[in-house]
Amino acid sequence: MSADKTRTARFRKGSNRVSAHVCPWWSAWLTIDNPLRRLVHDPRKIVGPYVKPGMTALDVGCGSGWFSIPMARMAGQRGRVIAVDLQQQMLDMLRRRAQRAGVADRIRTHKCESGSLGLDARADFALAFAMVHEVPDPRRLFGEIYACLKPGGKLLLAEPRLHVSAKTFAAEIAAAGEAGFRVLDEPRVRWARAVVFERPIQAPDATE
Question: Do 177 and 148 touch, CB atoms closer than 8 A?
Fold first, then answer.
């Protein structure tokens, strides 16, 4: 099972149990946080263009903080990161790692419920990395992320090429569009399909 596929806990309908597809918290170092992963998925290159000092960033399916901790550094002392995951053990691990990194005061952890983020936030940027393909209702997830972003806020969606076909990824893009997002860019992320969305500053049709 790849690092991308097992990065984080997934949203599941009708159950609070962790899915069999979810990376157990105790294997996070081997599958998610192995230092060799930086050669492929360097957070500075992937999210650096979107997270600036003073911003609020949302990491959906944060795992043990591969992106959350670097984003907290990028956001600076006046910024913050909201790290969301279904597994409390992952969030506890992230908290310990953030404390060692000196950025714990910039990170708010949030344990989501199965099938829903259950989050009230106003973020400038959101990340959904290698997790949407495990969600039973992507349209609902995108709608919740949309609600958490400020007008003009960005969402980076990235999915592993080995597990997500072009057709499936196109369906995810369509679901994001139904939630109100518009495609802004298609950045290159190694071994992944990726797209950046924007929550429009003004909705195309106010009657919708």
Answer: no
